[in-house]
């Protein structure tokens, strides 16, 4: 079964600095999707970025980018120029391209942004 | 364009009771997935509905059941509530089964 591991329960970053959140996953599949979701105190999960496993190019969305290492099964999120509004729980998630109804989430990383 | 909405926001029930949670999918989305998020944990997949049919189920007992209606809105029903059912229940909709899921704000269920 696929599992997702986020080894950093908590991280903090100074405003305007850069932070990287780690995620590793375990799968025997070759085709899948990876996601980072943000969950602020309002509880609503917000999609940050999505990566298709068959694409070698790392996904980027404005200040958010990923470092996708397929062989190492690693999918880290880099947040540049951190803002106070980035403070939230961040969840890494995996979804198979075959069994695409079951999205597996990690336990989350709580990001604090210091002014 | 209206996003995913859920009702109610909060709910308090006692052990043994039954509960129904509701989700309205984003306009144009025909797929709804439900997740349970216990405190301090990541969401866990309960089941998914695609065009009114169940399309996959996670490791949850049969007392967790669901429906999807012709307008693609959905309900999650939980019978014989247990204390461990206390959690945030999240609904997510997508254009299709393999598309990106967009989440609602969740329903916080407390079982006493």
Describe the 3D structure.
- The complex is a heterodimer of chains A (115) and B (112).
- By secondary structure, chain A is mainly beta.
- Helix content of chain A is 0%, strand content 53%.
- Chain A contains no helices and twelve strands.
- Chain A has strands spanning 3-5, 10-14, 19-21, 24-26, 32-39, 46-52, 60-61, 64-69, 74-79, 88-96, 103-105, 109-114.
- In chain A, the strands form three sheets. In chain A, strands 2, 5, 6, 10, 11 and 12 form a six-stranded mixed sheet that branches. A four-stranded antiparallel sheet of chain A has the order 3-9-8-7, with no helix packed on it. In chain A, strands 1-4 form a two-stranded antiparallel ribbon.
- Chain A is globular.
- The mean pLDDT of chain A is 93.
- Chain B is mostly beta strands and 112 residues long.
- Helix content of chain B is 0%, strand content 51%.
- Chain B contains no helices and eleven strands.
- Chain B has strands at 5-7, 10-13, 19-24, 31-37, 44-50, 53-57, 64-68, 74-78, 87-94, 102-103, 107-111.
- In chain B, the strands form two sheets. In chain B, strands 2, 4, 5, 6, 9, 10 and 11 form a seven-stranded mixed sheet that branches. A four-stranded antiparallel sheet of chain B has the order 1-3-8-7, with no helix packed on it.
- The N and C termini of chain B lie far apart (37 Å).
- The model of chain B has no long low-confidence stretch (mean pLDDT 93).
- Chain A binds chain B through residues 4, 35, 37, 42-47, 50, 91, 93, 97, 99-108, and chain B through 33, 35, 40-45, 48, 50, 55-56, 58, 88, 90, 92, 97-98, 100-106, 108.
